[in-house]
Amino acid sequence: MIINHPLLGPRDASEFVHMGDASLMHRPDPKSETAADDFYRYQYLRDNPAGLYAELWFHEQGDRSWLVVTRNTLTHEIIDVQLARHIARQKS
Amino acid sequence: MKYSGFKVIKEALTGHKGWKPVWRKPEPKPAYDIVIIGGGGHGLATAHYLAKKYKQKNIAVLEKGWIGGGNVGRNTTIVRSNYGLHGNEGFYELSMQLWERLEQDLNYNAMVSQRGVLNLIHSDPQRDAFVRRANTMIMNGADAVLLDAKGVREHSPLLNFDNGRFPITGGLLQPRGGTVRHDAVAWGYARSADSAGVDIIENCEATGFDIQAGTVMGVQTSRGPIKAGKVAVAVAGNSSRVMAMAGRRLPIESHVLQAFVSEGLKPLLPGVITFGAGHFYVSQSDKGGLVFGGDIDGYNSYAQRGNLPVVEDVCEGGMAIMPMIGKARMLRMWGGIMDMSMDGSPIIDRTDISGLYFNGGWCYGGFKATPASGLAFAHLLATDTPHDTATAFTLDRFERGLMIDEKGQGAQPNLH
Ligand SMILES: Cc1cc2nc3c(=O)[nH]c(=O)nc-3n(C[C@H](O)[C@H](O)[C@H](O)COP(=O)(O)OP(=O)(O)OC[C@H]3O[C@@H](n4cnc5c(N)ncnc54)[C@H](O)[C@@H]3O)c2cc1C
Questions:
Q1: Ligand 1 atom with minimal separation from the B334 CA
Q2: Could you report the per-residue pLDDT of A27-85, keeping only the tens digit for each?
Q3: Which of B337, B374, B371, B344 is nearest to B359 (CA)?
Q4: Mean pLDDT of chain B
Q5: Does the distance separating the beta carbons of B414 and A18 come in below 8 Å?
Q6: Contact assessment for residue A3 and residue A67, using Cβ atoms and an 8 Å cutoff
Q7: Which is the closest atom of ligand 1 to the Cα of B369?
Q8: What is the pLDDT of residue A91?
Q9: Where does a domain end: B315, B341, B367?
Q10: Ligand 1: which residues within 6 Å by Cβ?
Q11: What is the C-alpha separation between B297 and B375, in angstroms, rounded?
Q12: Hey, are the CB atoms on A73 and B303 less than 8 Å from each other?
């Protein structure tokens, strides 16, 4: 797989480490009343879809940025790549 | 039809005209007492034990493809009971004992071959960890032998003992471990279950559940709706997809694992050899091919095929520990979809939906578990209590902090 890094251009996926579901970026509020349950769901449960999946990849052997890669888990085709920090900033 | 030496001779003399298909091709009935979704090793073994040991009647196994097309026919056939944690080891040792009796129980040749499984040691900390593991194995009734470098040299002289990064300083040997012909296991259980009246329905995909007031009443399938008293899900890599149809999310990710087979060679490997430090393991099939593999690719996948970086990694591991492998030509490679759980251990449990039972999270090691998984799942379905050896495999253990994490990796499925 080739990941089209927003800053560095096309890079081989073997330069990256796969961290899992992009929802891991959105940590629950530890002060919430339901924090214990929220953290259980956040940490352990996954959607695990067959089809489009937004996931975190870390460019460990490159510029060490975190990317959100949208990929089809049935074909390995990569549809979209963005810097995770852009997405996080947009959200906050 | 019973298989025997006499039958083989008789058929040889009469032109092999008396062999028959070993299971029927029934049409689905409108209702069953128990419907098992997934005709892999685990689903079929569950059906076998439900019908034969727990005397349950009116059972169907629904398989979306054909028998043997899933992981049960894609794995590298290694069986062993060399786990390091108590919640696991007793269960895998039961499985090992069931393998030892399997062919007599099923009257089917599954080529169970206890040729030994050797895990290589390269450092003192690794030796300490293996000594601890060996003690857990022995405490749970399994066999374990610690070899020094000389012992490994006698066992497998062809290995590379002078690797600078990973010198071989010893090994943990389980002599009773070995290999079993994987698709014969599926066929043997299918034949046994069928002969006890279980309907094995191929080309029948479960497409939805009929759940009313928290109780499962039946399943929708590609061949029409089927009512069911109980529904048992055993779909390995497709666990999340099937349970999503019941509105449930699982502590599971699906990942691809690849395997490779070389051309046939004269006998050269005494048993299974694992080079965990180098992400490589290998055995030799009875046809002579070297059967080998390594780590999962490491990203979610339902594609049943992997990518080249792992092919390179596995081959590098092979060259490092067993340089002769570079002379062998690779014949075939393929991938299968693993149900990787959050602690690397399986789940055999009820769900919060009454009548719906779940078996999954087998990661890359569920083949060896097939007999015990079938027995434990059948026990749960028939008695509504967990089997003695499977009490730790609960679905809520992640919520309760009771993980069984052999590698201590935490909730990172691609590292288990
Ligand atoms: C390359 C590779 C090497 C491996 N090596 C080993 C090894 O050496 N030792 C070991 O112990 N384990 C090994 N494993 C793991 C082992 O193969 C699996 O853990 C085990 O086979 C999973 O259980 P199963 O046999 O029931 O799965 P499967 O055979 O995959 O059965 C699940 C079945 O469910 C069916 N299904 C899915 N969805 C539906 C639906 N909606 N409706 C109806 N049917 C459905 C599928 O078609 C499939 O046939 C390996 C796996 C792979 C891929």
A1: 1
A2: 999 999 999 999 999 999 999 999 999 999 999 999 999 999 999 999 999 999 999 99
A3: B374
A4: 97
A5: yes
A6: yes
A7: 11
A8: 79
A9: B341
A10: B 37-43, 62-65, 69-72, 74-78, 205-206, 234-238, 242, 257-259, 293, 336, 362, 364-368
A11: 31
A12: yes
Atom of ligand 1 nearest to the CA of B44: 26
Boundary of a domain, candidates B287, B321, B341: B341
> In which domain, by residue range, is B31 found?
21-76+183-251+346-415
Q: Is residue B84 part of a domain?
A: no
Nearest CA to ligand 1 atom 52: B75
d(CA A7, nearest CA chain B) in Å: 22
User: Would you state the torsion angle of the CA atoms of residues B366, B137, B415, B403, taken in this order, to the nearest 10 degrees?
Assistant: 90
Min Cα separation B6/chain A (Å)? 49
- For residue range B194-230, what is the model confidence (pLDDT) as tens digits? 999 999 999 999 999 999 999 999 999 999 999 999 9
Token pair of B166 as six digits = 């990973």
B398-408 tens-digit pLDDT: 999 999 999 99
pLDDT at B1 over 90: no
Would you call A20 an interface residue with chain B, using a CB distance cutoff of 8 Å? yes
Q: Tell me B8's DSSP state.
A: H
Would you say the pTM of this structure is higher than 0.95? Answer: yes
CB-nearest to A48 from B240, B303, B412 is B240
ipTM score for this prediction? 0.96
Number of domains present in the structure of chain B: 2
> What was the pLDDT predicted at A92?
74
Angle at B182 between CA B181 and CA B183, to 5 degrees: 105
Same domain? B150 vs B210: no
- The alpha-carbon radius of gyration of chain B (Å, integer) is 21
